[in-house]
Structure formats: C-alpha cells, structure tokens
Design goal:
By secondary structure, the chain is mainly β. It has no helices and 13 strands.
C-alpha cells in the first residue's frame, strides 16, 4: 500500500540548444522514461506523453521533397483527463537532408492498493532548438515512455524547432 497526501510540486527543465555553421552531420537522441504511480505535481522538461497534441509546421525555401506522417495512439484505463501536444517547426532553406522522428508511448492502468489525496497535475515539456547553416544531414530522435496509474491530470508538451538553411530533403515522423 502507498498512501500519499498533499504533495506539492517537482519541477525540472532541460533545454537543448545547438547552433552550428558548416557542419556535416548532427545526430541527437533523447530517451526519456517516466513511471509514476499517483504522483501529485511533477513538472519535467523532456518527460512526455499523456497530454500531447501534434502540430507540424514546415516552411521551406528551395526544398526538393518533404514527407511528413503522424500516427496517434493512446491507450488509457481509468484516467480522468489527458491533454497532449507536440509542436514541430522546421524552417529550412537550401539544406541537404533532415530526418526527425518522435515515438511516444503511454500506458496507464489502475493499481489496487494505492491511496492518494489531492493529486494535482503533471506537466512536462521538451524544447529542442537546432539552428544550422549549410548542414548536410541532421538526424534527431526522441523516444518517451510514461506509465502512470490513477492520475487525474497529466499535461505534457514537446516542442522541437529546427531552423536550417540550404536543405534538400526533410523527412519528419511522429508516432504517439
């Protein structure tokens, strides 16, 4: 049995900024796994799903091919409210190739012998900014897994911004 009452807040933030000029290849990967069972207030940056929305905005100048795909899948059991948002913005001009992928998995279930009172909010955000000039290949991947049981409100947001110049091909995929 776990009994918790009036737990206030945990706040953690991670901001990654990469600015490169004349770089051949950049590979970044973020793997975040969070398992919470009736946690009250957790605010993390690069912790992720449960509340996710996917907004994809691509502004390109002289780009050969853009392929984007979005697959959304949420499986929840006895969860009060799930709001999820993912915003991906790519602005490219004369770039050879950018490949970004985000895989998000949420599994929620109820646990029998846990008693909690005043469970509040889980807010997570990821902000990744990459600014490149004359870059050949950028590959970024983010895999986030959150398993929660009997949580009232979870709000997470992932924002990925890539600004590149001289890009030929952009491929982005998001699986939630």
């Amino acid at each position: 049995m776990i009994t918790t009452s009036q737990v206030d807040m945990i706040t953690s933030s991670q901001v990654d900024v990469i600015t490169t000029s004349h770089v051949d290849m950049i590979t970044t990967s973020h793997v975040d796994m969070i398992t919470t069972c009736q946690a009250d207030l957790i605010t993390t940056s690069q912790a992720d799903i449960i509340t996710t929305s996917q907004v994809d905005m691509i502004t390109t100048s002289q780009v050969d091919m853009i392929t984007t795909s979005q697959v959304d899948m949420i499986t929840t059991s006895h969860v009060d409210m799930i709001t999820t948002s993912q915003a991906d913005m790519i602005t490219t001009s004369h770039v050879d190739r950018i490949t970004t992928s985000q895989v998000d998995m949420i599994t929620t279930s109820q646990v029998d012998m846990i008693t909690t009172s005043q469970v509040d909010v889980i807010t997570t955000s990821q902000v990744d900014v990459i600014t490149t000039s004359q870059i050949d290949v950028i590959t970024t991947s983010q895999v986030d897994v959150i398993t929660t049981s009997q949580i009232d409100v979870i709000t997470t947001s992932q924002v990925d911004v890539i600004t590149t110049s001289q890009i030929d091909v952009i491929t982005t995929s998001q699986v939630d």
